[in-house]
Design brief:
two-stranded parallel sheet; 4 helices; 2 strands; mainly alpha
């Protein structure tokens, strides 16, 4: 931003941001719901969509002019953070799935220190990506609330 930053009226920013939100919301909701239901195949499907689509959506939002009011700037930040956090959650979930596929689950049942270390890693990765997804969901919900009010 800085001295030469562009800002536009909140209503105009909302018109630019709403299509970005609309493109993200279904994949984000599907991923969050799949996590809640522990539906791994649906999570895997959503991961691919999020990792491929959300970075370009975030870049489009980043390049757009900033809104004027503090409330709209917070909505802009929430939308940016929501997209970023969903990408982080999807990448972490993918990493866990790859690790499980590559034998981490088998190592976790081996017993001894190796088994405890593997089980701890599974728990850490699982918790981390769930927390990223929950945070992302809150950010997108806050952005949605503003976009609905703005028209």
């Amino acid at each position: 931003m800085g001295f030469l930053s562009r800002s536009i009226p909140d209503q105009d920013w909302a018109k630019l941001a709403k299509p970005i939100f609309e493109l993200a919301k279904d994949s984000a909701a599907a991923f969050s719901e799949a996590i809640r239901q522990e539906d791994v195949p649906r999570q895997a499907e959503a991961i691919g969509t999020i990792v491929l689509r959300f970075p370009s959506l975030a870049e489009s939002l980043q390049r757009s002019p900033r809104p004027t009011s503090a409330e709209a700037r917070q909505a802009n930040k929430n939308l940016q953070l929501g997209l970023k956090d969903y990408v982080d959650a999807a990448k972490q979930a993918n990493k866990l799935m790859v690790d499980l596929h590559n034998g981490l689950l088998a190592r976790s049942t081996a017993g001894g220190i190796e088994g405890r270390a593997a089980a701890g890693r599974i728990h850490f990765q699982w918790t981390l990506y769930q927390e990223f997804a929950q945070t992302a969901e809150r950010h997108l919900e806050n952005a949605r609330a503003f976009l609905e009010r703005a028209g």
